[in-house]
Amino acid sequence: MYNQLKVVTKSKKRVGRGVGSGKGFHTTGRGQKGQKARYTVGILFEGVKTKKSLLHRLPMLPGKQRFKAQAKPTSVSIAKLNLIPAGDVTIDTLIQHGFVNKKDKGRGAKIVGIGEVTNKYVLHVAASKSVSEAVTKAGGTIA
Q: I want to staple 135 with a disulfide (CB 3.0 to 4.6 A). Which of 22, 74, 80, 140 is the partner?
């Protein structure tokens, strides 16, 4: 019974497309008069005031990259590290074993978590403090 329910979707109401459209003719849902009834207003526009406007309140930071978010490295669990045979651990070996996507290679990877390491590894990727202690305890090194 529940598997046979029909899903009903309505199309978006198109504004200003004639009298019979449901929201057409005259004001087309914009109210009567005023600035917002006539044309679109930018999101940063705050009238003619300049003392407390948003643009004046933003800090003047140097450089082009001030609003760009920095990509964080992909996290790989220490439990997955034990599935790799002993030897060098690079971003390419993590991609080869399927722990990191190929498209995330530029972001890098970081091995995190708390646990034990069974094999000797030479880490060429970032690692948390607990992981680096576990690797050195097992006889491996961090390059």
A: 140
Interval 13-44: pLDDT, tens: 888 888 888 788 888 888 899 888 888 888 77
Q: How many domains does the chain have?
A: 2
pTM higher than 0.85 for the full model? no
Q: Tokens standing for 110?
A: 């970081």
pLDDT tens-digit map of 54-113:
777 777 767 776 677 778 899 999 998 888 888 999 999 999 999 999 988 888 999 999
The answer on 82 and 51 residing in a single domain is: no
Looking at the fold, whether 105 and 134 belong to one and the same domain comes out as yes
| Pick from 115, 112, 121, 111: nearest CA to 134 | 115
Kindly tell me the burial class for residue 104, based on how many C-beta atoms sit within 10 Å of its own C-beta (0-12, 13-18, 19 or more): middle
